[in-house]
Design goal:
Layout (H helix, E strand, L loop, with lengths): L1 H9 L23 H17 L1 E4 L5 H14 L4 E7 L20 E8 L9 H6 L2 H11 L5 E2 L7 E6 L5 E4 L6 E7 L3 E2 L2 E3 L11 H8 L7 E3 L6 E4 L6 E3 L2 E2 L4 E6 L1 E2 L8 H8 L4
Antiparallel strand pairs: 1-11, 2-3, 3-5, 4-15, 5-14, 6-12, 7-11, 7-14, 8-13, 9-10, 9-12
Helix pairs in contact: 1-3, 2-5
Length: 278
């Protein structure tokens, strides 16, 4: 049924991937041009200051509409998982006090459509596979060269979050994450983070503990706006997605790149996130 729905929809979605992007606002195709160089520099400055860079309206409104239709056609394929863990995505350390941040547990629940579930003619897949988009993201991140993930599941994901689902406070294991907002929930589903709360030399456990116990005094909330490209460096900026409420599923595309080729997820991560292994 899903395949038939997607095939029928694809007939009317012949737009080329570069036509999805608002190139007048974000001239990303020629990275040697002054406008593109200036844009990449502004992105890098934002990331250095706060660990995040928002590009609102990166996708045109009509492009968002097409991609939401595509996402709805695929959403029934999402694997929904529930996990309980610490912000450090590691097992709690029993040698530490019970109220230590490395022992404080919380729940995460989310649905994910894996890369191999996107049809070859999927607009989002074709957009992700564009070299010029990847080159721009690399320039914005200040990386000399990026590579798409080799992971058959994790290279491109669609996060599908339903009523009651959420992501708990956590740090990322990767240096950066690239996402494109497609549709907000009826209520909730905001992205929240504390910029650069820790560093390589200081875990700042007292401040993290206060956050986990409810002190939101330094929290930055990023309301979800469809079409926004978000570059986020989450290794040192703890973050979460607030609980989803209502009948409208929250849709976000996650585009995975790395500074080295051949990156794949572990079998354990594949099993927990997708319910299967490659």
């Amino acid at each position: 049924m899903v395949a038939r729905e997607f095939a029928a929809m694809s007939i009317s979605t012949s737009a080329r991937p570069q036509e999805l992007i608002d190139l007048a606002r974000y001239p990303i195709l020629d990275l040697n041009a002054p406008a593109a160089l200036g844009l990449a520099r502004e992105c890098r400055e934002q990331l250095d200051r706060t660990g995040a860079c928002e590009l609102p309206g990166f996708l045109k409104r009509e492009a968002v509409e097409l991609l939401v239709r595509e996402g709805d056609a695929l959403s029934s394929l999402a694997y929904h998982s529930v996990a309980r863990g610490t912000p450090y995505l590691e097992p709690p350390d029993p040698a530490l006090p019970e109220d230590h941040p490395r022992r404080i547990l919380d729940d995460t629940s989310v649905g994910v459509v894996a890369y191999d579930q996107f049809p070859a003619d999927s607009l989002m897949r074709r957009l992700y596979e564009r070299d010029d988009l990847m080159a721009f993201i690399g320039a914005a991140l200040g990386k000399e060269k990026l590579y798409r993930y080799a992971d058959p599941f994790g290279a491109l994901n669609l996060a599908v979050m339903r009523d009651g689902e959420r992501l708990h406070w956590h740090y990322d294991m990767t240096d950066f994450v690239t996402s494109i907002a497609l549709r907000a929930a009826d209520r909730g589903g905001d992205f929240e983070y504390v910029p650069l709360i820790r560093s390589a030399s200081n875990e700042n456990y007292p401040r993290v503990k206060r956050l986990l116990l409810g002190d939101n005094s330094q929290v930055v909330r990023v309301p979800m706006h469809a079409g926004t490209l978000l570059l986020f460096e989450g290794r040192n900026s703890i973050h979460r997605v607030t609980p989803i409420h209502g009948d409208t599923t929250r849709l976000v595309a996650l585009l995975a790149y790395d500074t080295k080729p051949g990156t794949c997820s572990s079998k354990l991560l594949q099993k927990s996130r997708y319910g299967r292994t490659a």
